[in-house]
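Here is the promised in-class demo. Please do not try to memorize the tokens; focus on the logic of going from shape to residues.
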């Protein structure tokens, strides 16, 4: 047999599943990372893969992985391309494994509240299908319309209703994946198990470096009986943090708890003069009423004034509407969001340091933040920056400088430098500060054990040795 991987792929899968036309390769050169878009606009579009493979079954995936490993060909798993941290950048010798054709709903089980999907299943379609049964996944990332169920797992995603329902690791029942040697594993078979380390977590957040996720079983919830909202204004970020901490530590868990600094509050409602906190309460009707009343009472005790419910209703209706990169780059502005997390005693200091540092970058138009995921021991911050430059050629360096300032402020302040978008390439070289040299060595050892010749999505997640 020929040593040419494309020849072998066509022989194993059929020519229709192996795409080599120029436009088909161009469409999948990278994900939604803004740096890739900047480079495209400057004419440095990057290199196309050797081919795009669209498997239709788990057996197809196994064949592709075995061929890639046998020929030493880089293999890049691709969901729906919504990643924003540079997890997908192709090279001329790489196989791009487009999982979009594996989009079936394998089963929905109302008795056990389980649903199993192919990894390429569109997130919104998955939610709509279980919603038709009176159920919900409970997972609502902003990218739900353009992201895949397998991508949620590969990046350890979080949704907007996570404070009550949890992040993707809390919703996963089982993961099916093809390992770099072509073997198939299914990890998870019961609501909980004590059968050694939980191997599902090896694949969560692995970003295609340790295998290819082919199927996911999610633990569902029944649709909420009732939904209510509440909103308050806080004099500053610290006062709002204290309110959120006390509410959660008292045992209340509104699915949505978000706090905006003054700049971002004005995007919610133009009359804002202080920080804004919005909440969505949902679940059994009696619980919703009691929880909302408890939030209102605590806010009053702490001196937080109520705001109109319409602010939250507007957010619910527009929360996934964001400008495209072209709209921003056309004005010679680079913008991005950077999500981190920290404990309650550290988060305010990180907010102050990061926003102050980004504001000092020449051309900075915005340096702001909001919190969006709350825990008993701390919360997430979602920084936003926008930097204008006279020349398009200077946007990329401004972008990396803003990221550097936020990553440094977070690490120096004792926080975690990634909450839910993953590592990709933009965070990769900060991983030693996140995990320590010993932790990076452990991650690299795991990679070497599973993928000794390094064919799985090289250049992502793990710093160079």
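The designed amino acids, position by position:
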């Amino acid at each position: 047999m020929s040593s040419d991987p494309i020849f072998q792929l066509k022989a194993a899968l059929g020519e229709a599943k192996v795409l080599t036309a120029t436009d088909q390769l161009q469409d999948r050169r990278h994900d939604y990372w803004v740096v890739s878009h900047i480079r495209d606009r400057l004419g440095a579009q990057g290199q196309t893969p050797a081919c795009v493979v669209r498997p239709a079954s788990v057996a197809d995936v196994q064949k592709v992985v075995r061929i890639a490993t046998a020929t030493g060909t880089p293999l890049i798993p691709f969901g729906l391309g919504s990643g924003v941290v540079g997890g997908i950048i192709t090279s001329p010798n790489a196989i791009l494994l487009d999982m979009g054709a594996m989009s079936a709903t394998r089963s929905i089980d109302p008795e056990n509240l389980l649903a199993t999907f192919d990894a390429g299943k569109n997130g919104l379609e998955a939610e709509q299908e279980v919603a038709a049964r009176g159920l919900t996944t409970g997972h609502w990332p902003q990218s739900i319309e353009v992201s895949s169920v397998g991508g949620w797992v590969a990046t350890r995603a979080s949704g907007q209703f996570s404070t009550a329902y949890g992040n993707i690791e809390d919703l996963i029942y089982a993961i099916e994946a093809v390992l770099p040697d072509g073997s198939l594993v299914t990890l998870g078979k019961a609501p909980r198990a004590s059968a050694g380390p939980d191997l599902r977590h090896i694949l969560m957040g692995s970003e295609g470096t340790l295998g290819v996720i082919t199927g996911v079983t999610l633990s569902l919830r029944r649709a909420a009986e009732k939904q209510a909202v509440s909103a308050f204004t806080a004099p500053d970020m610290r006062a709002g943090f204290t309110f959120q901490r006390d509410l959660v530590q008292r045992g209340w868990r509104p699915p949505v708890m978000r706090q905006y600094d003054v700049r971002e509050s004005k995007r919610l409602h133009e009359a804002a003069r202080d920080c804004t906190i919005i909440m969505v309460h949902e679940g059994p009707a009696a619980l919703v009423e009691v929880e909302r009343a408890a939030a209102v009472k605590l806010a009053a005790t702490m001196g937080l004034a109520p705001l109109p419910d319409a602010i939250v209703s507007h957010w619910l209706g527009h929360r996934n509407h964001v400008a495209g990169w072209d709209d921003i780059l056309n004005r010679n502005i680079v913008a991005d969001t950077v999500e981190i997390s920290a404990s309650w005693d550290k988060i305010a200091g990180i907010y102050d340091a990061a926003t102050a540092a980004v504001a000092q970058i020449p051309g900075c138009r915005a340096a702001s933040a909001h919190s969006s995921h709350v825990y008993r021991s701390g919360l997430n911050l979602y920084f936003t920056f926008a930097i204008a430059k006279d020349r398009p050629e200077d946007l990329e360096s401004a972008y990396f400088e803003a990221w550097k300032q936020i990553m440094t402020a977070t690490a120096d302040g004792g926080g975690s430098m990634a909450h839910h978008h993953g590592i990709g390439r933009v965070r990769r070289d900060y991983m030693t500060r996140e995990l320590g040299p010993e932790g990076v060595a452990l991650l690299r050892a795991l990679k070497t054990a599973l993928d000794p010749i390094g064919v799985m999505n090289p250049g992502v997640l793990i710093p160079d040795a």
